[in-house]
Design a protein that fits this description.
This protein has about 100 residues and is mainly α. Among the domains are: about 35 residues; about 35 residues. The protein is elongated and about 110 Å long.
Length: about 100
């Protein structure tokens, strides 16, 4: 039994080396030929170009917003309304105090 096992091992080692070398050579040839790699590279390049165009458009919109010469009227209006609200609240408190003092009298 040992004799058969020794013979199998002796022949299996070179056969596995030959098969693995053939597999490495085949893989190298596939990579050199560009099987699958070129198509994947083209897809990634197209995706990056679309993304770049989208980002350029967003940047141009942002630049136009930043460089606007017109003032933003909403900020002024908000400040005025906030001061009016504070003044109105003060007037309401004063009116309520006056009404309660009239009731007491």
């Amino acid at each position: 039994m040992k004799d058969i096992l020794v013979v199998a091992i002796v022949f299996a080692v070179p056969i596995s080396a030959i098969l693995s070398a053939a597999k490495v050579k085949l893989r190298r040839m596939e990579l050199e030929a560009g099987a699958g790699g070129a198509r994947l590279l083209e897809e990634r390049c197209a995706k990056i170009e679309r993304e770049n165009a989208d980002l350029q458009q967003r940047l141009s919109v942002l630049e136009s917003i930043v460089t606007m010469d017109a003032p933003v009227p909403a900020r002024t209006r908000v400040r005025v309304e906030a001061s009016q609200i504070a003044a109105d609240d003060g007037a309401d408190v004063a009116a309520a105090g006056a009404a309660s003092s009239q009731r007491r009298a």
